[in-house]
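Hi R.,

Here's the chain you asked about this morning:
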Amino acid sequence: MNVDAPGDIPSVWPDLPAPYRPEQFLDIIADCAKIDRALLVPSATMESLGIPSLDMVDILFEIEEKFDVYVPMGEEMGNIVYLADFVTMLADLIRNGSTPPETA
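And the predicted structure, written out as tokens:
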């Protein structure tokens, strides 16, 4: 995502299919990373939130457990800039039933 382009900064949460709500993800983030819930706004950047990598692993683990979905930590995560993008990615993974890759 090009963060320098006007209009790219999200100001609202993405529309999610029922029964998913952004609050479900935000509660996990706030709890695992010990972040004030008021700071979790759509336009917050992942960098500005300053979530340590260990907390991010905890967040992803909690989301995987709660929603029975695999969250890859590869390219998908590397392209995330805003918290709204993160919520959208998680909802897409849940909607599509992401499963872990098979191991040999």
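Residues 4 and 19 are 33 Å apart (CA to CA).

Let me know if you need anything else.
M.
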